[in-house]
User: What shape does this take?
Amino acid sequence: METVDIHLNPSAETHLQQDSGKPITDSTLDDSLYLLSNTFALVLSREKDFNVLPHVHTILAFLWSIYNLAVGPAALVSKVLNCIPWAKIVAYLNSFIKTEPIDDRVADAGRRGSFLQGAIKPLPEDYLLRGLVWCRDYFVSGWFDERHDEETRLLELPSTNKVRIDRVMRLSICLSQPV
Assistant: This one.
């Protein structure tokens, strides 16, 4: 099996490894990216569907993390970003703009690459994302400080869709900005 050789600098060589210690092959990485790309493309084909927004938010947050924070070797980051169906993301987001216009505060936060100010509480998926390594710098300091009831924090209130659309739009604007 061939390993993925990634050069971080001319004098250092890194091999990606699974938790088991076995190297990740080009084939494994390609299969993983194929699954990511095609699953995401299928989700994005459900235009104007509020039910897939948590998935879109999660993937865009992941992309923001690896794009903005340069998490991981440059060759791997580039490979991940190149497999993303960007045109489908644009079409999906444009389907919401007609009914949910982008607020100036969302656009400004996206251009600055900052978190939206004034959000009342975390989204339900935020609680699931907060422990992931790539989310370490995604949430602002103190975002989870306020105590929320375990049973009610995952409830989808009518206002949740607007907050989630704003977050998705902010992330998409962040991703469109040059680093």
In short: The beta strands are 5-9, 12-15. Residues 26-44 form the longest helix (19 residues).
